[in-house]
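Tutorial handout. Part one gives the primary structure; part two gives the three-dimensional structure as tokens.
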Amino acid sequence: MILAKGPVRSREKRTCEEPDFSDMVILLVSPEISLVDEPVKIQASGLPPEKVITLRAWLKDEKGQIFHSRAFYKTDMEGEGPFPGVIDMFGGVGGLIEFRSSLLASRGFASLALAYFAYDDLPGYLGEMDLKYFEEAAQFLCAHPKVSSDGIGVVAICKGAEIALAMASYLPQVAATVCINGTNAVNGNSLIYGDLALSGIPYKAERFLITDFGSLSLLNFLDDPGKPEHQDSILPLEKARGPILFLVGDKDENYNSLFFAREANARAVKYGKKDVYLRCYPGAGHLLEPPGSPFCSASQSTFFPLPLTWGGELVAHCRAQETSWKELQEFLRKNVRCSRRNKL
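Part two.
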């Protein structure tokens, strides 16, 4: 966006006030020298999107008097790109869910909502998971002319978070990963990738619980990955190229997600990976979604005879959604790089 400001005087000095990124900002002024009755166009680049900035101008005339002006602007979206690429996935409900991906796109990310079963010509049920499918999605996004080729981010919840962690562990295209209420190991469905094969930890169907409200709790459905017989199913997150952020609710009644995130963090410490982060939100349930999403403690699923219990406390969960959404975006902006600067 070109900003027209004027009239201004020929000996004017111009700066852009923003201490966090002013060393990256470039101001282009046309014409560079002008008289008081001529308009001046100013273009600023190197600014993050949707940021309020202050432009100041001042000069000292021949009598030593200082003239100054100040204007406030909000930067656009990134314009022509390239944009930071993000793959967005949901969990065991299957199908194509796009609302979070759409919001990420509105915030300046080139976001790909990726279905992996129960959609179009994909299998109706989730069976063996071939990481090659997800690698092709990452390659497709990286190769897009509007996407930065330096690497992509992955955001996923539930079963999708398990796949996201596998992608981070094995795919070089993944620069940053956000796992929302997921696990640290392959569960149920086996994972293959070329010659690699990881058996899924068997589900414990006998641990299903029916709540007083008649919904189904899967909280103890997944076995402890720390058992000796399950060690080969644990995902080697220490191999991940980039940082990993675990976002979990401590009132998740679908997964024991806090336990799994702590196990993942402990493995990172053990192997010396220092860029694994855990954020736990007190009172939050399983469905940590963008702000404005309605609080849902239980809902019907196509693949179960009873509604599934998601957990969470109304006020605490809604607050967690506001906080986690901001932290998710900040994490992606910091760790999924763009090669071109943004413009005002």
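Part three, for discussion. The CA atoms of residues 98 and 242 lie 25 Å apart. The chain is about 20% helix and 25% strand.
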